[in-house]
């Protein structure tokens, strides 16, 4: 599948961002300290990017049907080899991360409807621990002592912006901030910064160099990052039925090569299309194996 291209709306940008603009309506000027001339300004100002607002780079918002709750605890025994444990439970994902000094972080990404009734700080904590207590493969939480209140969010839609607005490239969460369950935020922040650096390597920062560098960055971003974003936004919809999900994971786990590919996909080392091709081959091999029996 060809990578999706976000609609291109060019904004006439100034070559530099200045403070104390005399024109408060000027979208390229930020009020603040005195003017700093720059040949390239990069927007790396996070999910609520103010630069995106100033440059009219509106975010496309995609629904995320899971809420997230997390907290830090003592008294939870670390599993063998100090391994993190991830339990897929129905449509939720429960994670346990052993940390240093006997602390453990518990994280739950759960369907919103499941946690909506968990009211009040104490009630929420009780329900949260009860949830982990009921998971067969999670470490025991009977003696868990919270180190503080539960943190998290009830609604965290994925936000996707154009990687370039006018003459300003966007990197990290300013460009795309996805469902935290995917665990890609810091990785994609570094990846997008690296793509930008590669796009500008060896180019002069004159008008032509900047234009070509920005175009190169946009293409790299759309080819490398957006296909993952599509898959992650799909996962956030939580609408796969249990039988389909079970079949998918049986196919993946029953085939060592496919298991490696799946790990590479979730580590964002291969593109979704490459995994999908391998998955289709795995499905066919499974089908023909079953037919032979
Ligand atoms: C609950 C939760 C759990 C997460 N878990 C993970 C995880 O397990 N793994 C993972 O990889 N990611 C995770 N993330 C996402 C991750 O935190 C972000 O993707 C990552 O921090 C993005 O980095 P960034 O540098 O683009 O943006 P940010 O970290 O938001 O940094 C932007 C910076 O710009 C600064 N800034 C903003 N405006 C201005 C201004 N006008 N002038 C100067 N500075 C400004 C801000 O102060 C901030 O320091 C999680 C997010 C949440 C909410």
TrEMBL record:
Chain residue ranges for the region called Disordered: 1-34
Basic and acidic residues: compositionally biased ranges: 1-13
**Which Gene3D superfamilies would you find in this protein's record?**
FAD/NAD(P)-binding domain
Question: What are the UniProt keywords, alphabetically?
Answer: Monooxygenase, Oxidoreductase
* SUPFAM superfamilies membership: FAD/NAD(P)-binding domain (SSF51905)
According to the UniProt entry, where is the signal peptide?
none
Name-wise, this protein is Uncharacterized protein
Origin organism of this chain? Streptomyces hydrogenans
**Could you read off the lineage of the organism from its UniProt record?**
Bacteria, Bacillati, Actinomycetota, Actinomycetes, Kitasatosporales
């Amino acid at each position: 599948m060809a990578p999706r291209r976000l609609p291109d709306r060019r904004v006439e940008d100034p070559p530099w961002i200045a403070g104390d603009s005399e024109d408060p309506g000027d979208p390229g000027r930020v009020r603040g300290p005195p003017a700093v001339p720059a040949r390239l300004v990069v927007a790396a100002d996070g999910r609520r990017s103010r630069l995106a607002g100033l440059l009219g780079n509106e975010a496309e918002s995609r629904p995320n049907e899971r809420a997230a709750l997390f907290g830090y605890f003592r008294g939870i025994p670390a599993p063998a080899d100090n391994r993190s444990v991830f339990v897929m439970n129905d449509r939720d994902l429960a994670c346990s991360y052993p940390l240093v000094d006997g602390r453990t972080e518990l994280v739950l990404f759960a369907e919103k409807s499941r946690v909506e009734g968990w009211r009040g700080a104490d009630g929420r904590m009780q329900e949260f621990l009860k949830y982990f207590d009921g998971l067969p493969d999670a470490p025991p939480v009977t003696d868990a002592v919270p180190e503080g209140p539960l943190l998290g969010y009830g609604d965290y839609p994925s936000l996707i912006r154009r990687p370039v607005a006018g003459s300003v490239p966007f990197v990290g969460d300013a460009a795309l901030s996805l469902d935290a369950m995917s665990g890609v935020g810091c990785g994609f922040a570094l990846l997008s910064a690296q793509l930008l650096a590669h796009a500008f390597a060896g180019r002069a920062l004159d008008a032509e160099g900047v234009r070509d560098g920005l175009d190169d960055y946009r293409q790299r971003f759309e080819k490398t990052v957006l296909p993952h974003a599509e898959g992650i936004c799909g996962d956030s919809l939580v609408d796969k039925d249990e039988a389909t999900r079970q079949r998918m994971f049986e196919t993946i786990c029953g085939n060592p090569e496919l298991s490696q590919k799946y790990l590479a996909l979730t580590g964002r080392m291969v593109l979704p299309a490459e995994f999908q091709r391998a998955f289709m081959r795995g499905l066919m091999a499974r089908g023909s194996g079953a037919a032979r029996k």
